[in-house]
Amino acid sequence: MRALRAFFPAVLFFAAANGAGAADMCGPAGAAALIASDPVNFRDAYYDFDVRARAFIGAFDPEDAARLEGEMRAERYGFLHEGAEDLLARLAVLLPMSTGEGEKSPAAFLEEQLYAGEVWDQSDDPKEIQRTAFARELLAVAPDAGRKAGQFVVHLDMARSLLAAHAADEESETDRGALVQLAPALEKSYKEGFRPVVKEAVFASRPARLDARLAARIEAMCEARRAEGQ
Predict the structure, then answer these.
(1) What is the rounded CA–CA span in Å between residue 101 and residue 52?
(2) Cβ distance 190 to 98 under 8 Å?
(3) Which of 91, 121, 147, 170 is most solvent-facing, going by the fewest CB within 10 Å?
(4) 204, pLDDT greater than 90
(5) Is the bond preceding residue 207 a cis peptide, omega within 30 degrees?
(6) Residue 17 has pLDDT above 80, yes or no
(7) DSSP string spanning 115-151?
(8) Residue 28 pLDDT
(9) pLDDT for position 24
(10) What is the pLDDT of residue 22?
(11) Are 37 and 22 in contact (CB under 8 A)?
């Protein structure tokens, strides 16, 4: 477990992943200037997330944790909960995790948009604008890309919530059964859904490289803002 902890640092870095000060994406220099002002390296973000996601999935064994007792049991669930929280923070480097109206969590808000097949432009932060453009690019990978990506986000958010209850020894019998069933579902939705969809969005070179595709998406967002009088 000590070695695996290197994959799940306790300190989350969502705030650090968002830069301050944006070039005007609708200004004279346009999308290219915005991307250059504070670029998101989606290639590195994908590799980082993939390594840590596969490590988490490999360690995510609720049945093994349930066989432990006392402090060891609480520590194992706490370790797994920390891993789920860390993955959600790293997901925020790849995809927009701004909160919407109401009480929905950033993950739940993202799930809703992915399932709907429409990611909303709602931030002026340069990195979040790029993530919004990337999410729209992800949706274009395949007709069911949003559902596939959204399903993994649902499963990861469920894991975070259930593991928090288990770590605090506040889980119900229903929670225990749900966590056991979630483990294979999480692995499948990552390996067969989220991972290949994101990988295709990052590395596909047709009809253009990712930076050019993102610039085109941002220009389209800018046109929509102009049409709405923003």
Answers:
(1) 30
(2) no
(3) 170
(4) no
(5) yes
(6) no
(7) HHT--------HHHHHHHHHHHHHHTS-TTHHHHHHH
(8) 64
(9) 66
(10) 46
(11) yes
Distances in whole angstroms, Cα of residue 74 to Cα of each of 78, 90, 163, 177: 6, 24, 10, 17
Residue tagged 């093994």 (tokens): 64
Beta carbons of 65 and 80 less than 8 angstroms apart: yes
Q: pTM here?
A: 0.84
The CA distance from 158 to 167, in Å, is 14
Scan for tokens 């799930």, then name that residue: 111
Residue 137: the pLDDT is: 95
